[in-house]
# Entry
Amino acid sequence: MILDAQIKSQLEQYLQLLEGDVLLQVSAGSDKISTDMVDLVEELSAMSPRIQMERTELERTPSFSVTRPGEEIGITFAGIPLGHEFTSLVLALLQVSGRAPKADPKTMDQIKNLEGSYHFESYISLSCQNCPEVVQSLNLMSVLNPNITHTMIDGAAFKEEVESKDIMAVPTVFLNGESFASGRMSLEELLAKLGSAPDASEFEGKEPFDVLVVGGGPAGASAAIYAARKGIRTGIVAERFGGQVMDTLSIENFVSVKHTEGPKFAASLEEHVKEYDIELMNLQRAKRLEKKELFELELENGAVVKGKTVILSTGARWRNIGVPGEEEFKNKGVAYCPHCDGPLFAGKDVAVIGGGNSGVEAAIDLAGITNHVTVLEYNAELKADSVLQDRLKSLPNVTVLTNARTQEITGTDKVNGLSYIDLQTGEEKHVELSGVFVQIGLVPNTDWLGDFVERTAHGEIVIDQRGATNMPGVFAAGDCTNIPYKQIIISMGSGATASLSAFDHLIRSDIPVLV
# Structure
């Protein structure tokens, strides 16, 4: 039995929603993964009279396709879609059966109107929290457009194929046999990469917003909701709604929610935002902000969006080390997410750069997967909490190097090692490695602002206790500001503060409010 009793109980409820017959075509051998896959498919077919199973030969073994009897729908799972991908399997069953997907009608029309043939292959790991969105998006595209096919490939089940293609980060997507994209991508982002994205003409004639929020993470979502609740015209411009929280595996410190995962949390944020009259302009990168009669925000696509007040909540991103080899070997051995990419380095030697909580947590996680982990910390001591350090020290396959300044990440077509300076002796040393995980903190996404508002030497926007910047009418919130603690709950609170302050600014100014 592959599915435990609790999962089967939940699954039975979903399978009652099937609207038509589904055929699972299984290509299996005699290996353990094939045996488990057959067991899974047999369990599924036994749970619903609408699910049929048949043996066949597919491009990869072990794998199984999800289709309708007598039809060809291009969804294939190469590997067993459990773990984070179990939801992808359930959605595929429902959508192939004819149940309408929960997607924006305009987005679905974009998919249906794509011309040409698209054969997607996504390489994933079952422990990756970023992979399901890509898998589910490509599956949906395959359901809606007969010219699109998608195969999800579990890297752990097809190690030789992964290594032959030098895939060292997940999710990695190939299109028609060529490398297409890597990293977390929404359905809208995938369509944009295919050339189906909003251009500047779609923003022409937009009325100015009373509150224009730049950034769609927890701070931005909170700010927009608080503004919309005041009944004023509110808009969000976001490069990626959800922000960095989308890359967070586990959230256990958001008060009143014992545990959740970043993507699930971000989905709840978006659902809440859409409960209000808020215009969400997603996948739009801010380029420049200036003050004329109103504030004018120029986007990368050339469009200009206007606001009477602006709330900057652009968040932060992973900080780069800035050494030779880092940029060259990104996704070729240089990684930033141990939960996502760790399984690709099973049995190999890796390094973690950074001795804070994130770095030590990453090292502990990787120690259970890889052959050996080397932790490099620039200072004389690790900065992580003592409980984490104690756990790290108990692991037999971890080496900690303090007073170590990373000098270069080396390699040819992929990472083969790391050079560092021993700050006590001045000696340069080299460690042979297959992967390097960078965990040295965050940098605010504020470079595009220039001198428009005051920023600290680290690029953080300077705000007062009301969230106001030194530019009247411009407020800021969250990880892009100089608030001392970068936490989701604090960002959301600062978003609310900035929004209330923006509303107060509006009612005290002589600019008419749009209601």
Q: What stands out?
A: The first helix runs from residue 5 to 15. The mean pLDDT is 93.
